[in-house]
Amino acid sequence: MYVIGYLLLAIAKILDLVLLLFMWIVIARAVLSWVNPDPFNPIVRFIHNVTEPALYRIRALMPVSFGGMDFSPIIVLLGVMFLRTFVVSSLMRLSNSLL
Length: 99
Description:
Layout: H1 2-32, H2 42-61, E1 65-66, E2 69-70, H3 72-98
Antiparallel strand pairs: 1-2
Helix pairs in contact: 1-2, 1-3, 2-3
């Protein structure tokens, strides 16, 4: 059972790190939307390509643009925070009970 506990703990830590990194990329995307960045810049393209699938799904499900402002990054950030709080914490708690 120790192996499964350590495996779940490792998965939880990696998932937490990936979600944290994605959260910062979404924040960078929101900050970049305030300025007019070069669309051919590789960093800007990477940020756009990584975040657009999640933001597009939110925009397709509900109208989140009011007065020219796009609130889909806020909804994505809330979703990431929920996943970090609920899923990662649950995995860590389960792994600690198996250790």
